[in-house]
From TrEMBL:
NCBIfam families: PPR
Repeat in keyword set: yes
Cross-referenced PANTHER family: PROTEIN THYLAKOID ASSEMBLY 8-LIKE, CHLOROPLASTIC
PPR repeats: 152-186, 187-221
Protein name per the record: Pentacotripeptide-repeat region of PRORP domain-containing protein
UniProt superkingdom: Eukaryota
Annotated keywords: Repeat
Keyword Repeat appears in the UniProt entry: yes
Signal peptide segment: none
Organism field: Brassica rapa subsp. trilocularis
Pfam families registered for this protein in UniProt: PPR_2
Length: 267
């Protein structure tokens, strides 16, 4: 009987030593373990020395932590992981100073020009995503002054489309002319958004000028700009008939819808 008590005492010492070593190496796990041990009275005792390597744990020894383990979580806005700290600082600074031209120019000279290439591209992309088009244009002007800059039609496209959607057609056409000077040609989406912007502003003549420029483009025209014009030029039957004729010649298998004559007259 005395021998059994001594063996039991040594067994308890070995278990306490194992728990102490585990708590030193894995403090977070030990904290979770002891909290669960105190909260769940059904877990009385777990023997770490009697567990075999290939033996699955018993149901009574398995527990699930249903509380925060204290480790830091990631940012709620996952896009921040793709943007460096310098780029984030510049974005916040540009937005903070956008109402003060003097401070904004000073901030650009002291902070924006020192950014790396990837950070500059991240800044202009994020400004476009947040619809800060004016700041994105300033960032684009900075990028154009860099040694690594090469004419990029996609940068122009994003800015022109943003300006057209914001009903700032004069600025959009200013970038349009700069793009043409760099021997770049818009794609179908750019033509479509600019034409839609002029039609929205009630300027069918300007929309037709862009349309004529599209016909001269080296890339073959697509169907969508024609559809936008055919719909937007319903109050202007003469202009619409010209676009419809070109549409039927380029897309003979397609059909152009004509509204009833009592709505807009005979087209």
């Amino acid at each position: 009987m005395r021998y059994l008590k001594v063996a039991q005492f040594h067994q308890n010492l070995r278990e306490m030593a194992a728990i102490r070593v585990l708590s030193r190496k894995l403090p977070t796990f030990a904290s979770i373990f002891f909290q669960t041990l105190t909260r769940n009275p059904s877990i009385h005792r777990i023997s770490f020395l009697n567990l075999k390597p290939n033996t699955p744990p018993k149901p009574s020894s398995v527990f699930v932590a249903q509380f925060h383990d204290g480790r830091p979580r990631g940012p709620l806005w996952r896009g921040k992981k793709l943007i460096g700290k310098e780029a984030l600082f510049v974005i916040l600074g540009l937005k903070r100073l956008k109402e003060d031209d003097e401070k904004l120019e000073k901030f650009i000279k002291t902070h924006v020009f020192r950014l790396l290439k990837l950070d500059m591209l991240a800044v202009i992309g994020e400004l476009e995503r947040q619809e800060e088009t004016a700041l994105a244009i300033k960032m684009f002007e900075v990028i154009q002054k860099q040694e690594w800059y090469q004419p990029d039609v996609f940068m122009y496209k994003d800015l022109i489309v943003s300006l057209a959607k914001s009903k700032r057609m004069d600025e959009a056409m200013g970038l349009w002319e700069k793009m043409k000077k760099e021997n770049l040609f818009p794609d179908s989406q750019t033509y479509t958004e600019v034409i839609r912007g002029f039609l929205r502003d009630g300027c069918p003549a300007d929309a037709m000028n862009v349309y004529e420029d599209m016909l001269k483009s080296p890339d073959p025209p697509e169907e969508l700009p024609f559809r936008v014009l055919l719909k937007g030029l319903l109050p202007h039957p003469l202009l619409r008939n010209k676009v419809k004729k070109d549409f039927e010649e380029l897309f003979p298998e397609k059909h152009a819808y004509d509204p009833p004559e009592e709505i807009f007259g005979r087209c």
